[in-house]
Amino acid sequence: MSAPPELMLHPQPLEKDPLISPRSGKEEAVIRIPVQIVVISAREKSTAEFPQDDVFREQITVLNNAFEPHFQFELNNLTRIVNANWAAGNDWREMKSTLHQGDQKTLNMYFNDGVAGNPTDSGRSSGPTILQQQPRQDGCIVAIDTLPRSSNPKHDLGIVAVHETGHFLGLEHPFNGGCNIGDYVADTPPMAKADHTCNINLHSCGDSRPDPVQNIMNYGPE
Questions:
Q1: Can you tell me the distance from the alpha carbon of 48 to that of 109, in angstroms, rounded to the nearest whole number?
Q2: How far is residue 70 from each of residues 26, 121, 209, measured CA to CA in Å?
Q3: I need a labelling partner for 218 at 20 to 30 A (CA). Which of 32, 146, 183, 205 fits?
């Protein structure tokens, strides 16, 4: 399925509205991002087996808390489908092309239950550069057992979706390129490699500042 030509030719600016920052108390611009959530399950499930709608609303709250005051995410639609192949993480490019909704202002989030419990495949995301050539590949894929209140002992606060949304917005890992490159944010300390332990005493690049192990773009337990 090809993208509508108007999306390819006329990128749309994100809407900005004034917002009183809870931190500075000053009026600042806020970018409002509509969110389309699709839940992909491997089989038909009873209502009790599914994460309820309020869990996904809580996930949106987690996103807003992480990215305030400049970004505000608003849940526009929640869809549930059954597709065992996509739920297992297979043919994800086809999945995105088929299920993508909205325009370039929209964050598409796909929660798969077939990859739950796989620590190496808890999420993946596109970056902004994909919009020009493959706009329907835009969005984040997240394992459903990383939602808030999940039974996953390492990911039960919804931070995996925050991490993947960071990539959607253009953020890099703090360990990108090791000690020499990083995330291109001047005040982020250098970090040689991903840390999965949250050891706040790491200085992997010899910098006086500790590694940013609690940065949402690092890997680690929540």
A1: 22
A2: 12, 29, 27
A3: 32
3-state secondary structure of 86: helix
Pairing outcome for strands 140-143 and 71-82:
unpaired
Query: Six-digit token pair at 193?
Result: 């490699």
Alpha helix positions (H), 44-203: 53-67, 84-87, 92-99, 159-168
164 catalytic residue (yes or no)? yes
Residues 89 and 131 in one domain: yes
- Give me the pLDDT at residue 83, please: 93
Question: For residue 115, which of 91, 145, 95 has the smallest C-alpha distance?
Answer: 145
> Of 122, 146, 168, which residue sits at a domain end?
168
pTM: 0.81
| DSSP 8-state symbol, 217 | T
The DSSP bridge pattern shows strands 107-112 and 71-82 to be unpaired
Model confidence pLDDT, tens digit, residues 33-73: 999 999 999 888 766 677 889 999 999 999 999 998 889 99
Question: Does 26 have pLDDT greater than 80?
Answer: no
Q: What is the pLDDT of residues 141-199, one digit of tens each?
A: 999 989 998 888 788 899 999 999 999 999 999 999 999 898 899 899 999 998 888 88
* Domain extent for 214: 175-222
Residue 103: DSSP 8-state: -
Same structural domain for residues 44 and 98? yes
> What's the CA gap between 101 and 38, in Å, rounded?
10
Distance CA 217, CA 167 (A): 8
| Catalytic residue (one of 58, 68, 74, 164) | 164
Identify any residues that bridge with 78 across adjacent strands, giving them in sequence order: 37
